[in-house]
Design brief:
By secondary structure, the protein is α/β, with parallel strands linked by helices. It is built from four helices and five strands.
Length: 147
C-alpha cells in the first residue's frame, strides 16, 4: 500500500459473505475518505461449453442478484448519507471472476481490495473460496478477506 487508502474495491455477488465484506469496505472508505467501488462480476460461460448444471447455476445466480437489489439500494443510500463516493459496476465476462476483479483493480489503481471468504458458489467446507483465493494469490494490492 502506498501509505494512503484512496480507492477501495469490494466484490459483491449477492452472498452474505460479500455483503459483510461490503460493510467493512464502507467503514474503511468512511474512515479514510476513500472512493468505494462495488463491482459485481457475472461469469457467463461460452454457449458451446456450457453444461446443464452450469446453466442451472447461472440461472440461480441471476435470481440471487435480483434478490440483492434491495440490499444494494440500501447500501447506496447509506453511502450517500455518509458522504462516501460510491461507484457501482456490473461486469459480464466469459473469463474467471478473480481474473476480471484483478484486472479491474489494476486498471483503476485500487489501494485495497475487500472480499468475502466465500461467494454464491462457495462450499461451506472450504476455508477460502476459489475467487477469494485467486485474488489473494495474485493481487498487486493489499487484500482484506472478511469472514
Amino acid at each position: 500500500m502506498k501509505g494512503r487508502v484512496s480507492k477501495v474495491l469490494v466484490g459483491i455477488d449477492g452472498s452474505n459473505h460479500s455483503f459483510r465484506a461490503a460493510e467493512y469496505a464502507m467503514n474503511i472508505s468512511k474512515k479514510y475518505m476513500a472512493k468505494l467501488i462495488a463491482v459485481t462480476v457475472t461469469y457467463i460461460p461460452s454457449k458451446s461449453s456450457i453444461s446443464q448444471q452450469e446453466a442451472i447455476e447461472v440461472g440461480a445466480g441471476l435470481s440471487e442478484m435480483d434478490k440483492a437489489r434491495t440490499w444494494f439500494e440500501s447500501f447506496t443510500e447509506r453511502a450517500r448519507q455518509n458522504r462516501i463516493e460510491l461507484k457501482t459496476e456490473l461486469v459480464n465476462s466469459q473469463r474467471p471472476v478473480d481474473y476480471v476483479m484483478l484486472e479491474y483493480a489494476e486498471k483503476e489503481g485500487i489501494d485495497l481490495i475487500v472480499i468475502g471468504t466465500r461467494g454464491r458458489t462457495g462450499l461451506s467446507k472450504l476455508v477460502l473460496g476459489s475467487v477469494a483465493s485467486g485474488i489473494v494469490s495474485y493481487s498487486h494490492s493489499p487484500v482484506l478477506v472478511v469472514k
